[in-house]
Design goal:
single chain, alpha/beta, 9-stranded mixed sheet, binds ligand LLP
């Protein structure tokens, strides 16, 4: 089990051994804080319950959840693979010398220049997401005299129960290849016949923040039906199956499930279905993003203006907001947190915590309970902000993107420095005709 790195003592929140009020004083706020220990514990759980347990299994961390050089360094050291979806993520991996064969390239509209970058670097797999991509990959392979391993992403037509914006597996989706006989099979054939492509298997991703395993199994069944057709029609074996990511985490009171809750039944079914088709059990791959980093992150803010709207609501404002956490405005996401310097005082007042951005929807916490003594200068910590917080940050209102500090058993250091005003405008230029 994952040990919780959050600890409350002396009326103060500690995170991975660090006093969070001291972190705020030393590094400034708003500040993202990432726990090395928590990330490492998750990776160990995955190792124990998945990669060590099932031969050939591998994890490909979904970089989109949180992508920085130091994060890639940890994954590199731990022997994990990564899933990238852009030239920028790939560039970051290249910059830390991430082993190319451990990179898997996803995306519904990979650009020609991104495909070129991936092929020249020699990534381990490209996850095919459309017909036109094939030629682009072949052309790049020709240019670099290389072959490329291809997994084909299917749209399994399974609706997982989660927020509508993050459902990706249902039939009406921009992701994956629809499973219509006359669409899907010619694409498989095209890959099998190519001199430059090696067909290795099938990929699915049904959605995010999931707590049930039925939809995974249902989708795997669909995937294996097509593995059977591929065997029957082309005598080709699906050697790898990627189950995608989406394993749910605790933001407020969701009950997080261990990875084995999802993976053991999936592996059992995979084995059974492979036996029925008469192929070797395919190597299994997963792409967890959120479940590795969400709970490993907190965000620290300093409290500013406090406004009481008589008979309605009390607003407490912080020095960050939707620029560092868009998930509340975008998905009505709910978070929890604590006043880090008053962590043991009784929370007896319900407030709305808002940010400093010019937008009414710029809310950080709804119906949040704080001690009545809360005042300007106090430090608010929000929990489980490690996934899709920093990675979805923006410069709205020309506010700088906060820095990220990594903590480990009482030690702390920058992993991303905060943006300066100078950096916000560094690419601004005056058009000649204005001069
Ligand atoms: N693999 C594929 C192909 C994906 O599209 C995704 C997420 C993942 C893996 C990782 O899923 P995870 O394990 O992190 O749930 N911005 C949204 C989440 C979008 C997820 C998109 N794809 C959010 O903040 O909730």
């Amino acid at each position: 089990m994952n040990q919780n790195v959050r600890e409350i003592k002396n009326n103060t929140l500690y995170f991975d051994g660090c006093d969070t009020t001291k972190l705020a004083a030393t590094y400034g706020t708003p500040l993202y804080v990432m726990s090395y220990t928590d990330i490492k514990n998750r990776l160990e759980e995955l190792k124990r319950d998945f990669t060590d347990r099932y031969p050939g299994a591998r994890i490909a961390y979904a970089s989109k959840a949180f992508c920085t050089e130091a994060m890639y360094e940890i994954l590199k050291q731990e022997g994990a693979c990564i899933d990238v979806v852009s030239g920028g993520e790939l560039y970051t991996a290249q910059k830390v010398g991430f082993p190319a064969e451990r990179v898997e390239f996803n995306g519904n509209n990979k650009l020609p220049k991104e495909i070129d970058q991936a092929v020249s670097f020699g990534v381990g797999r490209i996850i095919l997401d459309g017909l036109q991509e094939i030629e682009l990959i072949e052309e790049a392979c020709k240019r670099y005299a290389k072959k490329m391993n291809i997994m084909i992403r299917i749209t399994p037509g399974v609706a997982a129960s989660t927020h509508d914006y993050i459902v990706t597996g249902k039939k009406d989706s921009k992701f994956g290849i629809p499973l219509d006989e006359d669409v899907f099979m010619p694409i498989v054939k095209r890959v099998l016949e190519s001199d430059y492509l090696t067909f290795v298997g099938l990929h699915m991703h049904i959605g995010s923040q999931l707590f049930e395993n039925e939809a995974f199994i249902e989708a795997l069944d669909v995937l294996m039906d097509w593995a059977a057709k591929i065997k029957e029609e082309y005598d080709a074996d699906v050697k790898e199956v990627n189950f995608g990511g989406g394993f749910g985490v605790t933001y407020t009171n969701e009950e997080r499930k261990p990875y084995s809750f999802f993976l053991d039944p999936l592996m059992k079914r995979l084995k059974q279905r492979a036996g029925e088709i008469g192929i070797e059990v395919p190597a299994a791959v997963i792409e967890p993003g959120r479940s590795i980093v969400a709970e490993a992150g907190i965000t620290l803010y300093t409290i500013g203006q406090i406004k009481e709207i008589k008979g309605l609501r009390k607003y407490i404002s912080v020095d960050g907001g939707m620029g560092d956490n868009i998930r509340v405005a975008l998905y009505q996401a709910q978070y929890d947190g604590v006043i880090a310097n008053k962590a043991q005082e009784t929370p007896d007042e319900t407030v709305t915590v808002c940010g400093k951005y010019c937008e009414s929807g710029d809310i950080i916490l709804n119906d949040f309970k704080v001690p009545g003594s809360v005042q300007m200068g106090d430090i608010l910590a929000t929990y489980s902000t490690g996934a899709y917080g920093y990675s979805m940050a923006s410069n709205y209102n020309n506010n700088p993107i906060p820095g990220v500090v990594m903590v480990k058993e009482g030690q702390s250091d920058w992993m991303v420095k905060p943006q300066s005003y100078e950096q916000i405008v560094q690419n601004n230029v005056m058009p000649q005709f204005l001069a």
